[in-house]
Design a protein that fits this description.
It is a multi-pass membrane protein. The chain is mainly α. Helices cover 76% and strands 0% of the residues. The relative contact order is 0.11.
Length: 632
């Protein structure tokens, strides 16, 4: 009997355990959103334990499809699960005493907490790789040995017991507020997105996107932008959205005549944008509301126009690239035809979304909105999708996928709790803010540039929610001390935390697109940044023109002025980078357009007026000249 045959029964058991755990976690997310939890410790610690177990067992299940592994790897899995059980059980045993603050820690408690952190870091590595683990290890090292460091990094010193009390045995660390928000608010939306895909709404929405954009030159590239904008807002992972929609869109973009690297870049840029597109914003909106105390709807309104400008810029960039390459619109015969059944299936998405918006506008919680949307989507799926009625197990598979994605988010946010706890202990964020103020002086622009660079670096290689939390902890106080309103400061950080996913050299979204596009991930990242250039500019425009947020300092004149300049800047950036307008452009003309695009957004009224006047003249020139074929 072969080794593969011998392992088959065990493989079935491991996969079944992983699937059951994921489904249970998905159902917990739905239940808590609708009915809450009576025990906060059970809510946070219990769901984390289930998520970490799922992350551990998932990797163990994958091993069966690979080569023969040594017994020590199976022993490692068992040891991790035992360590998880030990650390969580101990937390439950002393949880009541911890809440009262009348518990004295023993050495045994401290080392049990260390074991818990080791399990957490290994689960994080299995779910997301090394970048986030390295950040957590550096943070723990800083807490323990930061008293030996120079300059602003030096603190008063903390013992292992002090660190463990904050990081593991309190609601200020691993089991802090962000983890609670994920369980009570975000899980239900992750499951909702998985259910939409499972009941058949996802492919139908993609079909609508192709039908709506087929008459444009960009064709599938425009469809990728539209589809990723819709699905990205419900997904907490840029790379997950790239894989989910990119498997269909990237090959079609390539077949239309775009280079593979450009196809991957468009998908990566569009998927990134979904993370700051209301109403869900990849779950960041809920975390931001909890961190800032700002109402969820206010955050969504403030994020709406910047996100729309971002997606408009992607459409314009793709259109001009298609013009440059001589790519014509899809033949009418190739444009998907929307059948009556497609319109009915679209209701599986439209009705639950309308219910969510109605519930939110009525003043009810975002959790309740998600809770009500889930059963409505499921019922509509059974009514409108005959295949789902024939194969109801599709629903369980959707719950499994939603639970697995939820487990990954929970593990990531739990690991970020290490950073949160240490930052609160040491006050590094506030000291870093002081250094930025000293270096930047009175220059808000220089402070913003430093914030941008720091956010891009700190967010690299991480999912959206952990990236936002890390960046806002370190960089947030600095920008708020410069007089920027809290909401805009947090949106500024979110943008660059998200765009770090397409920024080389890490560019995690580009690496996710590379196997599908069969192109160099670094080149994909470069093209993604080129297509999404306006996304790197919008946060600056938002800081200097708060009317763009619609909720802070709104004034119709300033609002119209910034909208005009942003629209013109999108045209200047897009034509400057592609080298195409009404005709092919020389290098000098392209450089002029790029310079005008930036100049229109410089916060000086005379520069703005002069650059806008010149840009309007160029746009009039482009309009007068009849567009003609400009293929290379």
């Amino acid at each position: 009997m072969s080794d593969t045959t011998a392992r088959r029964p065990l493989r079935t058991v491991v996969i079944a355990v992983q699937a059951v755990g994921a489904i249970v976690l998905a159902l917990i997310g739905i239940w808590v959103a609708g009915f809450g939890s009576f025990n906060e410790t059970l809510l946070r610690v219990g769901t984390y334990a289930l998520a970490a177990a799922i992350a551990t067992v998932t990797v163990a299940a994958v091993r069966f499809d690979g080569p023969k592994w040594g017994r020590w790897l199976w022993a490692l899995d068992i040891a991790l699960l035992a360590g998880l059980a030990l650390s969580v059980t101990r937390y439950f045993e002393i949880g009541t005493a911890l809440e009262t603050g009348l518990y004295f820690f023993s050495k045994q408690d401290i080392w049990v907490g260390v074991i818990g952190l080791i399990v957490l870091l290994e689960a994080t590595r299995r779910a997301f790789g090394l970048p986030l683990v390295i950040v957590c290890l550096l943070t723990l090292g800083y807490a323990l040995y930061g008293d030996s460091l120079p300059w602003i990094f030096r603190h008063g010193g903390y013992s292992l017991q002090q660190v463990m009390q904050v990081v593991w045995y309190s609601f200020d660390g691993v089991f802090g507020g962000p983890l609670s928000v994920v369980v009570t608010l975000i899980l239900v939306y992750i499951v909702f997105g998985a259910l939409l895909e499972g009941i058949g709404a996802g492919p139908v929405l993609l079909k609508f996107a192709f039908a709506a954009t087929g008459r444009f030159r960009g064709g599938p590239a425009h469809a990728a932008i539209a589809a990723s904008g819709v699905f990205g807002t419900m997904s907490g992972s840029v790379s997950g959205n790239v894989v989910g929609t990119g498997v269909m869109t990237i090959p079609m973009i390539i077949r239309r005549g775009f280079p593979p690297r450009y196809a991957g870049g468009v998908e990566a840029a569009a998927s990134a944008g979904g993370q700051f597109m209301p109403p869900i914003m990849g779950a960041v909106a809920f975390i931001m509301s909890d961190v800032t105390g700002i109402p969820y709807l206010t955050i969504c309104i403030a994020a709406l126009l910047p996100a729309l400008f971002y997606y408009v810029s992607l459409f314009v960039a793709v259109h001009l690239e298609a013009v440059r390459r001589g790519i014509e619109p899809l033949p009418k015969s190739e444009i998907p035809r929307i059948e009556r059944s497609d319109w009915w299936m679209a209701l599986c998405f439209v009705i639950p979304l309308a219910v969510m918006v109605t519930v939110l506008l009525s003043g009810r919680s975002a959790a309740m909105a998600g809770f009500l949307a889930v059963p409505i989507a499921v019922v509509l799926g059974f009514i409108l999708n005959p295949e789902l009625r024939r194969k109801p197990m599709m629903l369980l598979e959707a719950l499994r996928q939603g639970g697995q994605a939820s487990a990954q988010i929970l593990v990531a946010v739990a690991s970020i709790g290490i950073v949160i706890g240490v930052m609160n202990m040491t006050g590094l964020g506030l000291r870093f803010a002081g250094v930025i103020r000293v270096i930047a002086g009175d220059s808000l622009f220089l402070a913003l540039v430093m914030m941008m660079l720091g956010s891009l670096v700190l967010g690299m290689g991480m999912p959206t929610v952990p990236a936002y939390l890390i960046v806002i902890l370190v960089m947030g106080p600095a920008i708020e001390h410069m007089g920027v309103p809290m909401l805009i400061a947090h949106l500024f950080v979110v943008y660059y935390g998200v765009l770090s996913a397409i920024t080389p050299p890490v560019a995690i979204a580009a690496f996710a697109a590379a196997p599908i596009a069969r192109a160099n991930p670094v080149l994909i990242g470069i093209d993604a940044c080129r297509v999404a250039l306006i996304g790197f500019v919008i946060p600056f425009a938002l800081v200097y023109n708060p009317s763009l947020s619609l909720v802070i300092g709104f004034d119709w004149v300033s609002f119209g002025w910034i909208c005009l300049r942003l629209s013109l800047a999108i045209w200047m950036f897009s034509t400057g980078f592609t080298g195409v307008s009404s005709a092919r452009l020389g290098m000098a003309q392209r450089a002029l357009r790029l310079a005008l695009g930036f100049s229109m957004l410089v916060p000086d009224i005379w520069v703005e007026l002069g650059a806008t006047a010149l840009t309007l003249a160029l746009v009039a020139h482009d309009t007068i000249r009849r567009e003609r074929p400009v293929a290379a």
